[in-house]
Amino acid sequence: MDILTKDFYTRDTLTVARDLLGREIVRVLEDGTQLVCRITETEGYIGRMDKACHAYGYRRTPRTETLFAPPGTAYIYLIYGMYHCLNFVTEEEGEPAAVLIRGAVPVANGDIIAENRFGRKEKDMSSYQRKNFLNGPGKLCRGLALTRAQNGLDLTDPAGGLYVRSGAPPDPASIQVGKRVGIDYAEEAVDFPWRFYL
DNA sequence: CTTCAGATGCTCT
DNA sequence: GAGCATCTGAAGA
Considering only CA atoms, which of A151, A149, A127, A136 is closest in space to residue A67? Predict the structure, then answer.
């Protein structure tokens, strides 16, 4: 299956956010183990005009520096002191924008992902845990063992250990659109319909 | 099923 | 020092 190239990410952020649904994230661990999951939920963040974006108004700080990196770069940051969020940088280089990966379902090595999440194998998960496996940005990063150590990785270079492959595109009719989550401070941007999910 | 408090540390002012 | 693109467990309905 093909690895998504820089061209895929070098597009309008909302187009990329929608197009990422159904794609497969591959996370290669130190020992070569491949954790794979299929993207089911995304959100767009566009620094140029979006108060919810860390780089709103092209704001440049040590943290937002990654958003100014080339499209196809992983932007990972710590939130609430204990969780991480995974984003993919989009648009032309210099336009700070990204797609937050909010949810996914396991495709390969679910046992290892389950160990990372719950400290138990997939078959030992409760039904509650099955329902709430990777359906949130913090949960996803926990399951895939992603931290700020992976911030700035080049998603178009498989050698980096984190990339996305084409997967099977979803039925367009199954794509839902809605408001983004957890950005109550963002004034008019709270109502932007920039969340996409299956 | 629902609400709710608390955890925990980095980032920018 | 305030706030944050979240999650969990406990408790109640």
Answer: A151
Whole-structure pTM over 0.85, yes or no? yes
Strand B atom within 7 Å of A81 CB: yes
CA atom of A22 to C1′ atom of C12, Å: 38
Instruction: Encode pLDDT of A145-190 as tens digits.
Output: 999 999 999 999 999 999 999 999 999 999 999 999 999 999 999 9
Q: Is the CB of A53 under 7 A from strand C?
A: yes
How many CB atoms are located within 10 Å of the residue A22 CB? 17
The parts of chain A modelled with pLDDT lower than 50 are none
Topology of A6-108+146-167 in CATH?
3-methyladenine DNA Glycosylase; Chain A (3.10.300)
